[in-house]
């Protein structure tokens, strides 16, 4: 079944597939899946794992369930649908999980991660994240939780910028608050993104706001040396 996807979702699927090829997760979760495009595109490639679709809106999950039954009834991949709050999912502690959360604000993404990790050890759950804004607090918190960087990427779709962040509880590579490699892949794109972030934080800044000043300073100093 071919589902047309924009650049952002395509890059998420590609990074998830590469992660699966390397780590052979037993479970992949398309959290906050909406129409399930990411999960469906992964399902098309028949990964040897359990593939889960999660969204809290009943009408979304009912039509997705029908669509999956129609197209993937005989798939070799075991797929599952869950109509519930992603933060309340129970993960089997003895198995490995790749959790994909995309299209949700960075602060909400972090709240979901906090809920998930309150019940399951971080060594069992890797995350592939593509939040809408608020990357700084998310990256900072992931670092504090002991997560390390696997891969990161900057992308643009419809004039919006997105960071794609793949992190794991077993990687030793520190996650930078500003990002690291994403500034070095595409000179023009990263320059535009830096300007966009700086303009955003300048608008937020009040005279005595040391926290925002720190963020502005860090984004001004990112290493955009094109390698
Ligand atoms: C903008 S869509 C994102 C869809 C897709 N992941 C993407 O990146 O395009 C956000 C979806 O997240 C779902 N959602 C938001 N919070 C959720 C939660 N706590 N648990 C489950 N689903 C949630 C909404 O119902 C909605 O379908």
Automatic annotation (TrEMBL):
Q: Which InterPro entries match?
A: SAM-dependent_MTases_sf, UCP028234
Entry-linked Pfam families: Methyltransf_18
Which molecular function GO terms apply here? Answer: methyltransferase activity
* Recorded superkingdom: Bacteria
**GO:BP terms for this protein?**
methylation
SUPFAM superfamilies in the cross-refs = S-adenosyl-L-methionine-dependent methyltransferases
Q: Cite the entry's keywords alphabetically.
A: Methyltransferase, Transferase
Methyltransferase keyword on record? yes
> What is the name attached to this protein's record?
SAM-dependent methyltransferase
